[in-house]
Amino acid sequence: GENVEQHPSTLSVQEGDSAVIKCTYSDSASNYFPWYKQELGKRPQLIIDIRSNVGEKKDQRIAVTLNKTAKHFSLHITETQPEDSAVYFCAASNESGYALNFGKGTSLLVTP
Amino acid sequence: GAVVSQHPSRVICKSGTSVKIECRSLDFQATTMFWYRQFPKQSLMLMATSNEGSKATYEQGVEKDKFLINHASLTLSTLTVTSAHPEDSSFYICSASSITNYGYTFGSGTRLTVV
Questions:
Q1: Strand, helix or coil at B87?
Q2: Measuring CA to CA, which of A40, A97, B23, B51 is 20 to 30 A from B97?
Q3: Using one digit for the tens of pLDDT, what is the confidence trace for A78-102?
Q4: Which candidate from A99, A103, A104 shows the least CB-CB separation from B46?
Q5: Is B104's CB within 8 Å of A34's CB?
Q6: What backbone torsions phi and psi does residue B13 show, to the nearest 5 degrees?
Q7: Which of chain B's residues have a Cβ under 8 Å away from the Cβ of A101?
Q8: CB contact under 8 A, A49 and B103
Q9: SS3 string of A43-99?
Q10: How many CB atoms are located within 10 Å of the residue B82 CB?
């Protein structure tokens, strides 16, 4: 089955700096790669996703890049703010009726 | 957008009792429902996948007789934790997908505490 590895497990940055979280996956059939932000006790919130026919996608301060050949994808957050502090999960799936497989998560702390 | 309603949000039960968690898709037909469990400071671990009208497929290590999943309609799936024990205390969350609605819609989660 799919195995998703995520690094780092914790990340501390100063407000205004950039944060990068990286994930690798094992199943070449995976074609959907979402990123979620989860606050304590709440549901994961989709912040951005990318499908395998695209190499990069950007939404304001958030961007995701995908390298299908290397089977890795990354989340980039620019101009970080304290409210970006949360746990971020990457995931992968072969979207057609298959479950999301999650990475272990990255706890991001943005200090003022 | 797609909405999945999950109830209850929190439940405390005594050891040995059963608890039922419901997930309803409010504005789309959930052909597939995924059930996850999340322990504190850990990731979401897939427990089972259910397709409407079919028996659920459980992940390795998940006891199907303990975690009963029913997906009898396209808008409702339930997870029943039977004979709950303290080690079953966790955050349970459902995620729905459909053939017409790409992506995954998460319920709000259920915090189960077994005392």
A1: helix
A2: A40
A3: 999 999 999 999 999 987 678 999 9
A4: A99
A5: yes
A6: -135, 160
A7: 46
A8: yes
A9: CCEEEEEEECCCCEEEECCEEEEEECCCCEEEEEECCCCHHHCEEEEEEEECCCCCC
A10: 15
